[in-house]
Hints:
CATH topology of the largest domain: Rna Polymerase Sigma Factor, Chain: A
Distance between the termini: 72 Å
CATH architecture of the largest domain: Orthogonal Bundle
Structural class: mainly alpha
Number of strands: 0
CATH class of the largest domain: Mainly Alpha
CATH superfamily of the largest domain: RNA polymerase sigma factor, region 2, helix turn helix motif
Radius of gyration: 22 Å
Helix content: over 70%
Order of helices and strands: HHHHHHHHH
Low-confidence stretches: none
Number of helices: 9
Amino acid sequence: MDLKSDHDNLKQLSDMELLGMVKNDSIEAFEELYHRHWKKLYTFAYKRIRSKEITEEIVQDFLANLWAGRKSIVIKTSFEGYIYTAVRNLVLNCIAKETRRNAYTQFVKLFKSDEDYSTEQTVHVRDFYYNLQKELSYLPEKCRSVFEMSRHENKSNKEIAAQLGISEKTVEGHLTKAIRRLRINLNSLFF
């Protein structure tokens, strides 16, 4: 059998059959799934993100994670349902992260701006900023570094992980810990 007929045979297989081959380390089957679904996943994510670079990153991350986790994938419905749900979740995570980052950036801009606010507003903003910095200082060093790289330097989890030599899951854990502490300890300033 030549390479062309192998490729044609793969085209005849269902997604689930290809996935079974992928679980057995078939790079050819993975490439077939990649070619079948990349453009549709890209279009699906792009409609929600509207950024070519971020959309490409999301789809590439999903496909890399699919390959990396191929041995443990369990699909209870359809392959298409699984991949669209996974990409949708990555899109929602990206949007939520960007929303938090934008809110924090706006807060910092407000604090640093030269606009004339009422004395009461200025006092509240300065108190909040002081308390924010104080709470950040109580975080463990690595946790604080991850939070500041994410929020102040606008680095992605992947960039932070690479720079600090830790996994993306560890970065997510540090961010969750920092945000939880800030939410709990700064909540009293608003109520």
